[in-house]
Amino acid sequence: MLRAVLVVAGVGQVWMATPGLLHGEGHGLTHHAARHMGSLGLAMAFAFVLVAWRPRRALSMAPLVGVLSLSLVVMSAFDLVMGRTMMIVEFAHVPEVSGSIAIACLASAERRRAVRTLAL
After folding, report:
1. Which of 63, 86, 97, 117 is most buried, by CB atoms within 10 Å?
2. Average pLDDT, whole number, for the chain?
3. How many domains does the chain divide into?
């Protein structure tokens, strides 16, 4: 189930990154900044699909995607409170957050498995 969530989140990330990568458009950013954001989204999609394919990679990817998602959530909350964005716009971050939660769950399972292996 978590692996399927990661694949769907990865596809969502690619979908959202494509306009920035191909056309330099998105979120009212400059051409260059939109391409940077598209590249970041593509990298996150790659991380999601990689962990879906090889769940043992969750331990190494968890800090990276965790920081990205946490910063998105905190900054989105700040922008919502300050009235700079609307909640409906922030739903675009669902793939990042859901994929990061799935990776955190897989990383936790891998950690427990490693501890059991060491205990034997």
Report:
1. 97
2. 91
3. 1
